[in-house]
Design goal:
Layout lengths: L3 E6 L5 E6 L2 E3 L3 E5 L3 E3 L7 E5 L4 E4 L4 E4 L7 E5 L4 E13 L2 E5 L4 E13 L2 E6 L6 E7 L2 E3 L9 E6 L1 E12 L8 E7 L5 E8 L2 E2 L2 E7 L5 E3 L2 E3 L2 E2 L5 E8 L3 E2 L2 E3 L2 E3 L10 E8 L2 E2 L2 E3 L2 E3 L2 E2 L1 E8 L8 E3 L2 E3 L2 E2 L8 E7 L6 E3 L2 E3 L2 E2 L4 E7 L8 E3 L2 E3 L9 E6 L6 E3 L2 E3 L9 E2 L6 E2 L9 E2 L7 E4 L2
Parallel strand pairs: 3-6, 4-7, 5-8, 6-9, 7-10, 8-10, 9-11, 10-12, 11-13, 12-14, 12-15, 13-16, 14-17, 15-17, 16-18, 17-19, 18-21, 19-22, 19-23, 20-24, 21-25, 22-27, 23-28, 25-29, 26-30, 27-31, 28-32, 29-34, 31-35, 32-36, 33-37, 34-38, 35-39, 36-40, 37-41, 38-42, 39-43, 40-44, 42-45, 43-46, ...
Antiparallel strand pairs: 1-2, 1-4
């Protein structure tokens, strides 16, 4: 087996040289690789590098670590459980049959910096904590996870499970997945106080695709994250940019995150959701988030679905624009904001929902529907403009099919269809200038400066 040149700088400052094959690191120190590595395992579930001690800096030196055969389950770099103060940086891990980098449960103060994982069949990176032994106080930064999850069991580009206070910054998760199975590009499962800043999720594919798959996680931050040009290819399946669901999925903040030009099939019942909240997702905050230019048979920008504890979610300065439903039959609606089936006690403030369209069904700026719809919402200072369905009767600025005790104040609806009746259907007559329908179960502020306005096109 070919030997590889490594420089080891121990904690005492002594520099020594060593020739080794696939390497298990058992001595603290700084390790710098001086050449590319091609490793051909003889058994499954092996690794090129295994770190088994604390206080290690492992520098790939800009080199490429790759696999020389097709034995299954080869991982690039593995960090054993319960270790601390590990740095992995500066290099490429590519063309392997397992995961690029895997961090074991109970680890802390792990830094992964300037790493590219390319064509790692299972996952790009996996931070796998466990109940009682989470991964804590760690960081993944300046990394790219490219063309991974293309093996038969590929599932997550980047996975965080049972993590606390882990930060992911300036990373790209692009071109992952295959048309044969589902993909979650970024999986955040049972995590606490994690922080994602400047993470781009671009051009991934699968039968069903999720950009950020956020499950049972709380008090996490997502800032300046982009999900763009991802495509669900499975008939009848869904593309979701940001999926927020699971018991205790609460108190998360999304700031300036965008879902842009993602797609699912045009045939019913395929769907595309930009921000989808369901199943015990409560008290989440969305600030300046955008759902723009997404397409599927049916499409919703911001979608909330009960009946289980989907409450107290707030949307401030958000935009749903130019989302297009292309399905050929009923059930192919488009909505900028959709409040479904007892998703209650929310707020929409200074938001814009405009130019959402449906080729063969209805289009809505804001829709309350399903079961008892939504109740106790505050909808204020928002605009619902030119949402166009298949005809005049199917184009609405606001449409309350089901929902009670909601507050509407200082909103504007314009050019949704061609009549006043299409602008604010179900908003109380006493709160709207130029209204001709009424729903006394919803509340408003009456005429004057706090009233709502619909405008004849």
């Amino acid at each position: 087996m070919k030997k590889h040149f490594i420089v080891i700088i121990f904690a005492l400052g002594i520099i020594s040289q060593l020739y080794a094959p696939s390497q298990q690191i058992t001595v603290p120190g700084s390790y710098l690789y001086g050449e590319d590595v091609t490793y051909s395992p003889v058994a499954t579930n092996d690794s090129i590098i295994q770190i088994s001690t604390n206080n290690v800096t492992f520098d790939l030196g800009g080199r490429i670590f790759t696999q020389g055969n097709l034995i299954a389950g080869l991982n690039g770099i593995i960090v054993d459980p319960n270790l601390t103060n590990i740095i992995i940086r500066n290099g490429y891990i590519q063309n392997i049959t397992g995961t690029g980098i895997g961090i074991g449960q109970g680890c802390s103060r792990i830094t992964i910096d300037n790493i590219v994982t390319f064509s790692c069949d299972l996952r790009g990176m996996n931070l796998g904590g466990a109940t009682g032994t989470p991964i804590t106080d760690s960081e993944v930064k300046n990394c790219s996870l490219l063309s991974c999850c293309q093996g038969a069991t590929g599932d997550f580009g980047l996975r965080l499970f049972q993590c606390s206070r882990v930060k992911v910054t300036n990373c790209n998760i692009n071109n992952n997945g295959l048309s044969s199975h589902a993909l979650s590009s970024v999986r955040v499962n049972t995590c606490l106080q994690c922080d994602f800043q400047g993470v781009n999720v671009l051009s991934n594919i699968g039968t069903a695709v999720v950009g950020f798959d956020i499950v049972t996680s709380s008090t996490c931050l997502f800032g300046n994250c982009l999900v763009r040009n991802n495509t669900a290819l499975g008939a009848g399946l869904t593309m979701t940019a940001f999926a927020i669901n699971g018991t205790g999925n609460a108190f998360n903040v999304f700031n300036n995150c965008m879902s842009f030009e993602n797609a699912a099939p045009a045939a019913n019942p395929s769907q595309c959701f930009s921000f989808d909240l369901s199943n015990n997702s409560f008290a989440n905050l969305f600030i300046a988030c955008k759902a723009i230019g997404n397409t599927a048979a049916a499409v919703n920008g911001f979608n909330l679905t009960g009946p289980t504890n989907v409450i107290n979610n707030s949307f401030i300065d958000c935009i749903a624009q130019r989302n297009n439903a292309t399905g050929a039959s009923a059930g192919s609606a488009a909505a900028g904001f959709a409040i479904n089936n007892t998703a209650d006690f929310g707020m929409i403030l200074r938001c814009v929902s405009s130019f959402n369209t449906s080729t063969n069904d209805s289009a809505y700026g804001l829709l309350f529907q399903g079961g008892t719809g939504g109740s106790n919402w505050s909808i204020r200072e928002s605009e619902f403009v030119r949402n166009i369905g298949s005809g005049n009767a199917t184009s609405f600025g606001i449409n309350i099919i089901a929902g009670t005790t909601n507050m509407f104040s200082k909103n504007t609806a314009f050019n949704n269809g061609t009549t006043q009746g299409n602008q604010m259907s179900g908003v109380p007559v006493s709160t709207v200038f130029n209204r001709n329908t009424t729903n006394l179960n919803n509340n408003g502020a009456g005429s004057g400066p706090w009233g709502n306005v619909d405008i004849i096109p």
